Amino acid sequence: MLLLASSMCFARKRSGNTHCRKCLPVSEMIISRTWGNRRFDFFDQLARWATVVLLFAAPTSRALFNVTSVVILLSWLLAGRHVQRWITVRGNPVFWPCVTVVSIMLIGVTYTVAPLADVLEHARVYSKFLFVLLLVSLLDQTVWRRRAWGAFALAMLITVGTTYLNIWWDPPWSATHNQGWGVDHSVFVDYIIQGVVSTFFMVLAMERARASKHLAARVIWLVVTAMTLVSVIFLVQGRTGQIAILAVFMVYSHQITPTRWRWPVIAVGLLMLVALMAASPLLQERVLTAWAEIQRFRADDYQSSVGIRLKLWEFAWEMVRQKPFWGHGTGSYHILASRVFADCTLTCFHPHNQFLFFWLENGLPGLLAYLSLFLALLTTASKVKPSHRIVFLGFVAVLLVESIFNAPFWYRMESYIFYSLLALLMAEVPRLRVGESVSPKAAPGHP
After folding, report:
1. 443: which DSSP letter?
2. How far is the C-alpha of 326 from the C-alpha of 257, rounded, in Å?
3. CB of 430 within 8 A of CB of 92?
4. Could you give the CA distance from residue 213 to residue 298 in angstroms, rounded to a whole number?
5. What is the pLDDT along the chain (447 residues), one digit of tens a residue?
6. Residues 6+ apart with CB under 8 A from 17
7. How far apart are alpha carbons 239 and 284 in whole angstroms?
8. DSSP state of 442
9. How far apart are CA 167 and CA 235, in angstroms?
């Protein structure tokens, strides 16, 4: 090959063409290729390790998440081989839902009633759907997905452990400083988000327990599951987490219970969970408060947690009815809400419902695009191995509950968690195997 290259270069030199890349000395060609490989290896490894750190940062630190995101993006760009990465992600079931959501959001900019600042804010937030695809391309190897799952599990173990420490001690890194039983002990994020993400972690811990071949590991993961369950019910005051627990339990029981015993087991299990929740003084207070807030809303007083949600759903539905097909445009919710509500502190950011949020701003196409994301998750759940299937379905259950009561892909730390977990889950698609990896250094023995 070297002799052939030398002959071709000699012929080109005789014809006067000395600017061809192939006419470089062989030593320079080797140095060029070596430098290209070294550059790719360095930035590719940096981007992958940063992705692992990102999964740790998602439920723990907003600042670390933002810094790590910048490192990932720059490393991904500098590493190159973008065509190969494109091939990696374009066949993933999450590709079209993510691209469609962003495309519809950009189309909505052309007819929105929102000011430029609100439009740019929505573009910044929803562009993370494209960041999901970037993360999928970096998690194309089993070894990196295992590290990412481990980083997320470590972050949640620290969160749950600190929640218990907070009963007796005041950790300086905790967001709450309440000692004792029966009060909120949320750590890094607010109580709503911690309850929801802890519920998903509980599903992951249960599956780790079921998949463990060693008794000691199984016992450890069962203890982690129980401690996480108790923390959500007794130590975090958010009601959304408890609803997510009920939804996850139904999904989990439906998957692991034989058909003839399925519904009796679900019924008995739900009764036991409700009884456990009834024993929580914190939850009792929150349920009674919710009932009182519903009664106040009926009397046209919506200045409460439940009352604001009901009022915002009512308002959002009225806006949807006005323009059901195309919506009011990207970023329009804020300006529309500010025209109706005198106090925008809790009312003008999002309608506490991701489905209504997309429908109000981007019309029926926006709603269908978001629903297609759920369809992609459910389709993928049927293709992955059984141990992953329950984790997928648990994530769908948690995402569904959170989408009904909040805006999981728009609101701050909450969105960081869901974007990251979405990428990690969808990277588990069976089509993405080591043999198809962008990096030539795929670890052998990891299918």
Report:
1. P
2. 44
3. no
4. 54
5. 434 444 445 445 455 554 554 454 544 445 555 766 787 888 999 999 999 999 999 999 999 999 999 999 999 999 887 888 888 888 899 999 999 999 999 999 999 999 999 999 999 999 999 999 999 999 989 999 999 999 999 999 999 999 999 888 888 888 878 877 777 778 887 778 888 999 999 999 999 998 888 899 999 999 999 999 988 888 887 778 888 888 888 888 777 777 777 777 777 777 777 776 666 676 666 667 766 767 666 666 666 667 788 888 999 999 999 999 999 999 999 999 888 887 777 667 788 899 999 999 999 999 999 999 999 999 998 888 877 889 999 999 999 999 999 999 998 778 999 999 999 999 988 654 433 455 555 443 333
6. 23
7. 10
8. P
9. 9
Torsional sign, CA 200, 202, 205, 210? negative
Report the candidate in 146, 22, 133 with the shortest Cα–Cα distance to residue 82.
Answer: 133
> Any residues with CB less than 8 A from the CB of 10 and at least 6 apart, and which?
none
**Domain coordinates in residue numbering, the chain:** 30-432
Residue 34: which residues within 8 A CB-CB, separation 6 or more?
Answer: none
Q: How far apart are CA 39 and CA 362, in angstroms?
A: 42
* Cα-to-chain-centroid distance, residue 116: 27
Q: How far apart are CA 386 and CA 403, in angstroms?
A: 26
Name the amino acid, one letter, at 170.
D
